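quick q for whoever's on today - can somebody do inverse folding on this one?? i tried earlier but teh output was garbage lol. tokens:
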């Protein structure tokens, strides 16, 4: 409770952080962890611009040669793969950080294990693509 002092009146209000509402029960941990399952690579992504895409080699070039098959690719100023993988590691760490203060750790054992797995997988992809760990 926070005490608000005003010249005409004094009252108390309850101040609740949004993070207290999100991380207050096991169901919310599981709902947050469910997003991790949209991250793994599948066949459709293997031919898109993902880190392990065949288009990033000289094996597949589509209907015309691309910068990878020509050997003319340059280092870009920004990289969507870097940003995407970094965000994934951040989200898993966010769940793990909030799990440390959860009242009943056994209730969130599954989402914590999922977060550790997907953090490891994302860090592995990050390392293979950029040759260092974030």
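ok took a stab at it. sequence:
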């Amino acid at each position: 409770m926070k005490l608000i002092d005003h010249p005409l009146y004094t009252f108390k209000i309850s101040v609740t952080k949004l993070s207290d509402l999100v991380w207050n029960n096991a169901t919310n941990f599981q709902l947050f962890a469910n997003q991790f399952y949209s991250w793994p690579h599948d066949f459709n992504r293997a031919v898109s611009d993902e880190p392990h895409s065949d288009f990033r080699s000289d094996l597949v070039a589509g209907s015309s040669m691309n910068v990878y098959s020509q050997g003319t690719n340059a280092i870009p100023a920004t990289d969507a793969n870097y940003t995407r993988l970094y965000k994934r590691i951040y989200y898993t760490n966010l769940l793990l950080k909030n799990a440390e203060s959860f009242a009943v750790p056994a209730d969130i054992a599954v989402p914590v294990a999922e977060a550790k797995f997907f953090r490891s997988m994302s860090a592995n992809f990050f390392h293979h693509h950029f040759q260092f760990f974030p």
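fwiw The first strand starts at residue 2 and ends at 5. also Strands lie at 2-5, 10-13. so keep that in mind when u check it
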